[in-house]
Task: inverse folding
């Protein structure tokens, strides 16, 4: 079995560690961070990271939002320090359902959801499937549409080929251990330049075969075609915040997705990439607060 990140090793000085807890729900042992007022009065905000990331992706943004919200930040199944596999694997619907079960266990109902990349797709899936009833959703660098043209077929096929190859996670993990490789990979694949702490945290995770296996499995199980067909069913106000330098998801993709959803809007941010919330967390927090307060 591929080694997963260990809380006492890779997580020994994890960002916002004081707010971390481990909760068992069904087949999953969740790592989740809860911060901010927990008096039952402050609205709850759920933050969902993207493929290959974990709670560290929100390390600077979550504490700012916690001044005004009860913020719930889980590691998705197969990622970070959450262990176990849900029934149905790491499909979008299975993840949406299991996050709903976690929220039930925590007795928290999200007022709003903020999702980055694939996390935005899960947020929308949760709303469409009535897993939760948020008043608004914010997607950052949202991955909502299949890759165009031939890539639509090649990408999931490649992910499935990697999934069935037991050596693939170990090869990716070894590559991540090469000096400077994670920084170069993040810059090439996202168009974002993040701080040294962020690069170090991604390196820790990607250097563990278990985390790489979770990301590969999630990509292999992903069905954006089904989400695309369902996007017009979304009735929750949606804001898509998108860096105009995003190298992973082009701004045109966000605009095409928004055009399928009644009332959805796109807010481009100049000079930022796919990890806009890690590059300028204060600016993104202001955008989120303003949109949530409008609804």
Result:
């Amino acid at each position: 079995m591929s080694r997963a990140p260990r809380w006492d090793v890779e997580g020994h000085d994890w960002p916002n560690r004081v707010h971390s807890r481990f909760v068992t729900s069904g087949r999953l042992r969740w790592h989740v961070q809860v911060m901010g007022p927990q008096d039952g009065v402050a609205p709850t905000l759920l933050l969902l990271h993207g493929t290959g990331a974990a709670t560290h992706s929100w390390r600077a943004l979550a504490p700012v939002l916690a001044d005004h919200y009860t913020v719930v930040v889980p590691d998705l199944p197969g990622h970070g320090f959450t262990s176990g596999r849900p029934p149905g694997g790491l499909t979008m619907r299975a993840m949406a359902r299991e996050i709903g079960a976690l929220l039930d266990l925590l007795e928290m109902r999200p007022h709003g959801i903020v999702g980055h990349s694939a996390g935005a797709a899960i947020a929308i899936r949760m709303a469409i499937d009535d897993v939760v009833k948020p008043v608004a959703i914010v997607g950052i660098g949202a991955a909502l549409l299949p890759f165009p043209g031939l890539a639509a077929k090649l990408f999931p096929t490649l992910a499935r080929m990697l999934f069935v190859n037991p050596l693939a996670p170990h090869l990716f993990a070894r590559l991540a251990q090469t000096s400077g490789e994670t920084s170069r990979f993040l810059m090439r694949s996202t168009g974002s330049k993040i701080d040294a702490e962020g690069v170090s945290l991604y390196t820790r995770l990607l250097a563990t075969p278990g985390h790489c296996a979770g990301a590969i499995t999630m990509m292999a199980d992903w069905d954006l075609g089904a989400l695309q067909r369902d996007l017009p069913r979304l009735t929750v106000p949606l804001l898509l915040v998108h860096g105009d330098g995003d190298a992973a998801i082009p701004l045109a993709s966000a605009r095409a997705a928004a055009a399928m959803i009644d009332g959805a809007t796109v807010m481009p941010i100049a000079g930022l990439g796919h990890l806009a919330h890690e590059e300028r967390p204060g600016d993104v927090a202001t955008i989120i607060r303003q949109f949530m307060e409008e609804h």
Observations:
- The longest strand covers residues 28-35.
